[in-house]
């Protein structure tokens, strides 16, 4: 593969605003390419609807991780914090169909004990999910943002997801789950990592 999984992150300031007119024209073309009658009643508003839907599904291209990891508290807490089973919906950049599953995000705060609001970790997952993605990049981006912005001493991110491009088309293997992980800093320590994995697995239903 020539394209890097860990593509350099684009500054959201450099990403042009979602072009609704262009997206509508493209959807109209796609429908025409399918042989559909784009003027029939049921499809008349579809290009505009799809454009709005894709604007929503890619809103993360315009968001910065540092804008969601804003609320930090210096609690002096220096033990592991882990939020498990954060629901995620993203879009595979190869087929533009969803992949969905859960993210588990854990970290060991900085030596100063800088922690973030728990909901902010879920918001961070959303920022990176709402873009054309591959699961590996999504995983590393979340881990790197936690490390850089919170100055976390250790981070673990595990994502379990089902890709609709493998389920509803192509190889058609419903139920196959892809698991990716990214581990940083002190979380690489064998004992700490197994503690985190045990906490994540304790939720396996
Ligand atoms: N590594 C990785 N691969 C993905 C992800 N999402 C989709 N893919 C894969 O991307 C690949 C694209 O392969 P291609 O051969 O170019 O496309 P294709 O002919 O549609 O492939 P099939 O899905 O096998 O029919 C497929 O194997 C997908 O399963 C992801 O998040 N990570
Ligand atoms: Zn795909």
UniProtKB/TrEMBL annotation:
Belongs to the GTP cyclohydrolase I family. It catalyses: GTP + H2O = 7,8-dihydroneopterin 3'-triphosphate + formate + H(+). InterPro entries: GTP-CH-I_C/QueF, GTP-CH-I_N, GTP_CycHdrlase_I, GTP_CycHdrlase_I_CS, GTP_CycHdrlase_I_dom. Keywords: GTP-binding, Hydrolase, Metal-binding, Nucleotide-binding, One-carbon metabolism, Zinc. This is GTP cyclohydrolase 1. It holds the Pfam family GTP_cyclohydroI. Pathway: Cofactor biosynthesis; 7,8-dihydroneopterin triphosphate biosynthesis; 7,8-dihydroneopterin triphosphate from GTP: step 1/1. Homopolymer. SUPFAM superfamilies: Tetrahydrobiopterin biosynthesis enzymes-like. Its EC number is 3.5.4.16. Gene3D superfamilies: 1.10.286.10, 3.30.1130.10. Residues 24-201 form the GTP cyclohydrolase I domain. Zn(2+) binds at residues 92, 95, 165.
């Amino acid at each position: 593969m020539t394209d890097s999984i860990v593509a350099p992150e684009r500054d959201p300031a450099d990403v042009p605003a979602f072009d609704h007119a262009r997206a509508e024209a493209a959807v109209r073309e796609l429908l025409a390419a399918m042989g559909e009658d784009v003027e029939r009643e049921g499809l008349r508003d579809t290009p505009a609807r799809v454009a709005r839907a894709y604007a929503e599904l890619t809103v993360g291209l315009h968001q910065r991780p540092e804008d969601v990891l804003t609320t930090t508290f210096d609690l002096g807490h220096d033990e592991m914090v882990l939020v498990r089973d954060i629901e995620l919906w993203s879009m595979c950049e190869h087929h533009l169909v969803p992949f969905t599953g859960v993210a588990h995000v854990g970290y060991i705060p900085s030596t100063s004990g800088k922690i973030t609001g728990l909901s902010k970790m879920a918001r961070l997952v959303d920022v990176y999910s709402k873009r054309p993605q591959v699961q590996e990049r999504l995983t590393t981006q979340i881990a790197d943002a936690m490390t850089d912005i919170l100055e976390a001493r250790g981070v673990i991110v595990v994502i379990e997801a089902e890709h609709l491009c493998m389920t509803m088309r192509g190889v058609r293997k419903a139920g196959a789950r892809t698991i990716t992980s990214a581990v940083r800093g002190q979380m690489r320590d064998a004992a700490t990592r197994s503690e985190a994995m045990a906490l994540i697995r304790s939720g396996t239903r």
